[in-house]
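Case study 2.
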Amino acid sequence: MIRLTVNPIVESATLMRRVMVVLGSIGVTSLYSSLILVRALLGRLTRERVDRYTRDWSALLLRLVRVNLNVEGRIPDFEDGRRYLILCSHASHYDIPLSFVALPGSIRMLAKKELFRIPLLGPAMRAGEFPSIDRSNHQRALEDLQTARDMMESGIVLWAAPEGTRSADGSLGTFKKGCFHLALDTQAVIVPVGIRGNEKVLPARTCQINLGQPVDFVVGEPLDTAGYGREQLPELMEAVRGSIERARGER
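Prediction:
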C-alpha cells in the first residue's frame, strides 16, 4: 500500500493559488519535456530515464494540488515476461500522473493524436515511446495499434481509458472496443484500475481546484485474456467493467 499525503485538509483553492497551479503545471511539464528532448538529441535517452522523468513529473503535479493519495490492491509484477494493459477509469486530467506515481514499470499512455501537437510535450512523448491512436483514420489506427503491440512486446505496460474520454460527471462511461481488441490480439493481462475522488480535484467544466483532496487508487484483480476468444469480447468488457466498478465502490 502506498500513501502520498501532502496535506490532509481539503480546501478550495483561491484564484491566486489556481493561477500558481496552472503556471506550475506548465513549467514542470515544459522542464521534463525539455529534459527528454535534450537527452534524445544527445543519444542518451533510455527507457529507464523516461520512467524516472514521468514519475518525477507526476509527483510534482500532484504536489501542486496537494493530493492525499492512497493506493490499494495487489500490483502485478510487470517484469514477469507477460504483456500488460492497464485499463483505468477516467474522470480527471490527473488520472495519468496518479497512475505514474502509484504503479511501477515502464508505463506509457495510449494517447490521442491531438496531444502530440502540443509544443514540447508532443515531441517529448514521441521520444519517450508514447503511442498515439488516430481514431479519424481507420488504416492509420490499425498501424498505430500495431505499433502499440510492438511496444508491449518490448516490455512497455500500456495505460488506456476504456471510456475513450474523460467522464463529465465522474461516473463510469460507455466502454469503447479498441483497447479490448488490442488486449485480445496480444493476449495481454488486463489490470483494471478504479479511482475514487479524483474528479473532485479539478471538477469537469469548472476552473475550481480542491487542494488536499483524498484520492483512492484501487487496483483490481488482473484478468488474463489468453482464455478469451474474439467472440467473447462482450463478456471480457463486462468483466473489466465490473472489476472497475467494484474498485470504485459502485458494486
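Helices lie at 15-41, 47-64, 95-102, 121-127, 138-153, 178-186, 233-247.
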